[in-house]
Write a structure and sequence with these properties.
It is built from 8 helices and 2 strands, in the order H-H-E-E-H-H-H-H-H-H. It has 355 residues and is mostly helical. The chain is elongated and about 110 Å long. The N terminus and C terminus are likely disordered.
């Protein structure tokens, strides 16, 4: 009985599987679980391939058979990704260098602007309190002052001419309305038909001549406006640039003179040389703008005389002919200066434009 029990125990301790291999029970369970997991993974991969199909970007190069270890798998996407990462890194480095270069350039511009503003402000304050010297061109300064005074007086003439135009336009419109009223009363008042009639004709004639005079005055106002607000203003803009260049020139000149008084070591000599270069640059700019202002003042004076000679003659002849009642001379004045009047109702929009 003991032998049978031992043989039975031995039979239970040494199980034999279907292949005839001798294994422990724990090892058999482990192998069975691993096989199930591996089979489920293979089935899942097969289903994914059947659904989505192969992707060339995710194709793997396997060193072993199907289901080999991960160490033998080299995904091609990682190879492509490495090249793309290298390209992106290069482009990002280039972009960073470009942005850094732009930032440095802007910083240099701001630095130069700040230094220039400081020097000019210091020079302006020194001149204001009488501690600094300034470069003065007496003849040119006198011409500039004459121009500014002339512009102020011409602006007064322009404003008065515009006021005259507005008042005279109101008078012409009143004469036109009065003429229409006289004509209407002439039809409705038989006993005063003649008196209302010739008053209506007189007001209509005055209205027609007034419109002709308005054309001459408007041309006069337009020409004076161009002379004052365009030609003179352009010259004054150049003068403003010249005055700024003069201030910068004196600022860098004073800076160079201040450096030249101090000690002459290596660092100071380098600063003096740089200041000398800036001084020469601003000196050339100042002299160039001074020459431009001189030329523009000369041409402006010639243009002003020519324009005002024509416009004053027009204004005189038109006013004289109107108040003398000489309609023919008034029309001849407009022809002489090539002034074309707009036909009545020309300013009104057409029927199509009103729709």
């Amino acid at each position: 009985m003991a032998d049978s029990m031992m043989s039975k125990a031995a039979t239970m301790e040494i199980p034999i599987n279907s292949n005839g291999d001798s294994r422990t029970l724990a090892e058999d369970d482990t192998l069975e679980q691993a096989a199930k997991i591996q089979w489920s993974l293979r089935e899942k991969d097969l289903q994914q391939v059947m659904v989505s199909g192969p992707n060339l970007n995710e194709t793997s190069i396997v060193s072993g058979g199907y289901g080999g270890t991960a160490e033998g798998i080299i995904p091609t996407s990682s190879i492509k990704g490495s090249n793309m990462h290298h390209t992106n890194s290069s482009s990002s480095i280039t972009a960073d260098e470009a942005s850094r270069g732009v930032a440095v350039e802007k910083f240099d511009i701001m630095k130069k602007w700040g230094l220039n503003t400081y020097k000019c402000t210091k020079q302006m304050i020194s001149e204001r309190f009488g501690r600094g010297s300034r470069t003065v061109d007496l003849e040119l300064e006198a011409q500039i002052e004459v121009l500014r005074e002339t512009k102020r007086k011409y602006e007064i003439v322009l404003n008065l001419a515009r006021a005259l135009t507005n008042h005279f336009y109101s008078m012409v419109q009143t004469q036109n309305t009065l003429g229409d009223t006289f004509a209407d009363l002439s039809q409705k008042s038989p006993e005063l038909r003649d008196e209302f009639g010739y008053n209506a004709e007189t007001q209509k004639l005055l209205c027609k001549n007034g419109e002709t005079l308005l054309g001459a005055i408007n041309y006069f106002v337009s020409s004076i406006n161009t002379l004052v607000n365009k030609t003179m203003e352009d010259t004054l803009l150049t003068i403003k640039m010249y005055e700024n260049a003069r201030l910068e020139f004196d600022a860098y000149r004073a800076d160079l003179e201040e450096m030249s008084i101090g000690p002459r070591d290596a660092v100071t000599m380098a600063r003096i040389e740089a200041a000398q270069q800036q001084y020469q640059i601003h000196k050339d700019k100042y002299e160039r703008l001074r020459s431009d202002v001189t030329i523009k003042l000369k041409f402006l004076e010639e243009n002003k005389v020519k324009v005002m000679h024509k416009q004053l003659l027009l204004f005189h002849n038109a006013i004289s002919a109107y108040f003398a009642g000489n309609q023919q001379q008034l029309e001849q004045t407009l022809k002489q200066f090539n002034i074309k009047l707009k036909p009545p109702g020309a300013d009104k929009p057409s029927w199509l434009e009103e729709q």
